[in-house]
Amino acid sequence: GRVPLPAGALAGRHVLVTAGPTHEPIDPVRYLANRSSGRQGYAIAAALAECGARVTLVSGPVDLPPPAGVAVTRVETAAQMLAACDAALPCDAAICAAAVADWHVAQRSERKMKKAAGSPPPVLTLLPNPDILARLSAPGPDRPALVVGFAAETHDVERHAAAKRAAKGCDWVVANDVRPETGIMGGTENEIVLITRDGAERWPRLDKQAVGRHLALRIAQYFSSDRSP
Ligand code: CTP
Ligand code: CA
């Protein structure tokens, strides 16, 4: 059955969620991107809204309807996603579920690049994108009380996810255990390890909808207790 959510537990809280891929244009018809359906981020946003939060969902290009009761800001690039997140501050919690492209093309062409007969293919120079999770995690007056990042790990899940938590400066990392022996890759279920300051919580196997509900419940618990992350 579906985990019951505490209606109203996040009333008066503003939560920012990023979801989907970003598209980094090469020219008007081509782009660089990560694979992402956006389903995990949308499920989290929906579950948080069900808990009564005001949710701002900053979404890259995906083929999903806006979740009920959620304000969606649609963006294309990582730079636009960062700007939309900054514009949404302040918030109580930020959940970075987006599969942000790590690079953008240094010199995007304003005109479609043509294959000239006999000439070599273009060489693309890439520049790093801003790390939105790290930026939201940085100390400052607008730093959300709770910042949550995601990671997919194929081995040493807890160690790598804990290292990612430290590197980004976020409070929690939702680590998806994609070791081949879990049989998770390509399936509909996830095996999640939640890394917090206190250690690692292993969740049962859940689909993306249920992961969203578990995370929303966990966030509601966090804000209804005096515990810091
Ligand atoms: N993330 C982000 N902005 C970026 C890159 C990543 O906000 N430019 C966030 C993702 O939304 C996710 C977390 O950082 O919550 C981890 O993303 P991941 O791609 O696993 O980590 P990276 O630091 O980009 O490392 P790498 O891709 O090299 O593993
Ligand atoms: Ca990355």
Automatic annotation (TrEMBL):
Pathway: Cofactor biosynthesis; coenzyme A biosynthesis; CoA from (R)-pantothenate: step 2/5; Cofactor biosynthesis; coenzyme A biosynthesis; CoA from (R)-pantothenate: step 3/5. Residues 15-229 are annotated as: Phosphopantothenate--cysteine ligase. It catalyses: (R)-4'-phosphopantothenate + L-cysteine + CTP = N-[(R)-4-phosphopantothenoyl]-L-cysteine + CMP + diphosphate + H(+); N-[(R)-4-phosphopantothenoyl]-L-cysteine + H(+) = (R)-4'-phosphopantetheine + CO2. The gene is coaBC. This is Coenzyme A biosynthesis bifunctional protein CoaBC. It comes from the Bacteria. Its cofactor is FMN; Mg(2+). Keywords: Decarboxylase, Flavoprotein, FMN, Ligase, Lyase, Magnesium, Metal-binding, Multifunctional enzyme. CTP binds at residues 102, 112, 130-133, 150, 164, 168. Catalyzes two steps in the biosynthesis of coenzyme A. In the first step cysteine is conjugated to 4'-phosphopantothenate to form 4-phosphopantothenoylcysteine, in the latter compound is decarboxylated to form 4'-phosphopantotheine. Residues 10-221 form the DNA/pantothenate metabolism flavoprotein C-terminal domain. In the C-terminal section; belongs to the PPC synthetase family. One of its GO terms (molecular function) is phosphopantothenoylcysteine decarboxylase activity. It comes from Nguyenibacter vanlangensis. Binds 1 FMN per subunit. Its EC number is 4.1.1.36, 6.3.2.5.
